[in-house]
Design a protein that fits this description.
Layout: E1 3-5, H1 20-28, E2 31-35, H2 40-56, E3 61-67, E4 69-71, H3 72-84, E5 89-98, H4 100-105, E6 113-115, E7 120-123, H5 134-159, H6 163-169, E8 174-177, H7 178-184, E9 189-190
Parallel strand pairs: 2-3, 3-5, 5-6, 5-7, 6-9
Antiparallel strand pairs: 1-4, 7-8
Helix pairs in contact: 2-3
């Protein structure tokens, strides 16, 4: 399992921290909140909500994302299910959308990717720790290289940037404020009010 987050990332949010009443209100409004470190638990909860909302109606779902990143494979699960469901999903970035969170954010088509004015985005290559016999370390190194290439291909496909540029950009942390994220192709447009999603 590869980690995609900054070294200064806060610990994962504890399940059950949100008010059940508020969670229910958000769910009824067809909103899915993705806050905190991307983990298997967060991915499982998010995927269940997406599938339940999709089964209930084909109306758009709004996913609000503020996350430093986390486990790449957990981000993969959310990214793929966003593309799997029939209901269109509007992605709204706020706070920071980093690493594996940027990956899941890119699950929505570009015209449905939005952010609030103060949002910052981060792209970079995955990292992972390897221990044990040299043969196991070599296997892990090869898998990290494959994951890096896969992430770069997704970013290039979803932003329209040349693959070689993306490969260079993710060599180090690349932070982008909202305006730069729009220019790069991560974001369709910056919004300030919920009503602006109605045109999506």
């Amino acid at each position: 399992m590869f980690t995609c987050q900054t070294e200064s990332s806060p610990p994962a949010a504890q399940p059950g921290g949100a008010s059940p009443f508020l969670e229910e209100k958000a769910f009824r409004a067809r909103m899915v909140l993705v806050f905190g470190t991307v983990t298997d638990t967060l991915a499982s909860e998010t995927v269940r909500k997406l599938l339940a909302l999709d089964a209930e109606s084909s109306a758009p779902i709004t996913m609000i994302v503020s996350s430093p990143g986390g486990h790449l494979e957990s981000g993969d699960a959310i990214h793929d299910v966003v593309r799997f469901v029939s209901s269109p999903v509007n992605m709204v970035g706020t706070g920071w959308v980093g690493s594996a969170a940027t990956h899941l954010y890119l699950g929505a088509p570009r015209e449905r990717r939005f952010c609030l004015p103060q949002t910052r985005f981060l792209i970079h290559q995955p990292s992972g720790g390897a221990g044990g016999p040299a043969s196991d370390i070599a296997i892990q190194a090869r898998e990290i290289i494959k994951a890096r290439e896969r992430i770069a291909q997704v970013i290039a496909r979803e932003t329209g940037q040349p693959l070689d540029r993306v490969m260079q950009d993710i060599e180090r942390d690349l932070w982008m404020p909202a305006e730069e994220a729009v220019s790069y192709g991560l974001v369709s447009r910056i919004i300030q009010r919920r009503e602006e999603l109605a045109a999506a």
